[in-house]
Amino acid sequence: MLNQYSRNLLGKFLSLYQSSDQISIAILSEIILFTYGINRVLRLVVEPNFSNEIKRTLFNENLYFSSGKLYEAIKDNGWSSISNKPIDNKMRTKVLLVLGNELSDVEDCYKNELNGDFRISGKYFNYPDCCINSYPAISSSQEKWANSLIENSGPGPYPCWANRLATGWGGACFSGELFPCSLHCENAIAIGRKTYNCLLDIGFKKLSREFLQQSLNPLIVHKNGKIEKVLDSQKYKNNIIKFFK
Ligand SMILES: [Zn+2]
Prior knowledge:
This protein has helices at about 5-20, 25-35, 50-55, 105-115, 120-125, 130-140, 145-155, 185-200, 205-215, and strands at about 40-45, 65-75, 80-85, 90-100, 160, 220, 225-230, 245. It is of the alpha+beta class. The longest helix is centred in the first third of the chain and has 16 residues, at about 5-20. The structure holds zinc ion.
């Protein structure tokens, strides 16, 4: 169970989540893994004002912060490319905010994340080696990351626990922002199950059901990389990708 300090911290994060669109439901998984002490750091990419609000809200929580400017471009299916330099004029100025309980973790993770050293920063988020190793291929596909992920995953239906595809239509993902090497990856699935168990452990039954529902929702990945959520009334559609618990 969570101790009083962590419960307090989670409460503050939840109020930030409720008050702004800048924390997606997919990031909630990362927040839960962090407040539970499973992940050493938490990384957020937000607007400058909101970064200040987060720091103000968490001021008394004995956390360390590292933050600075970065540039972000977001595609339709949720793919976000970040860079420490403005590569093109579509990029928006954001803040990369890393927070954690140890100053050295926070500073090292921030530096490596900003410089694109995902192998090092990934370790701070407990990303499995197999998924870290397959990340360059997925990220080079950019807006077609979902097509790459499906290709790597082989035939479905797929377990719902590392369903990163759902984030493409704005849905939740138990394994957070991790790009799994495959939707069948046991290591990524283990992370997703941890988030689910944490949600149940803190008594967030309703939220756990919501996560589950969104992760199980059938979807379509179009050739151009767009991800479409399939509604109940559209079950006749072709190429529907299905998930199971
Ligand atoms: Zn993997």
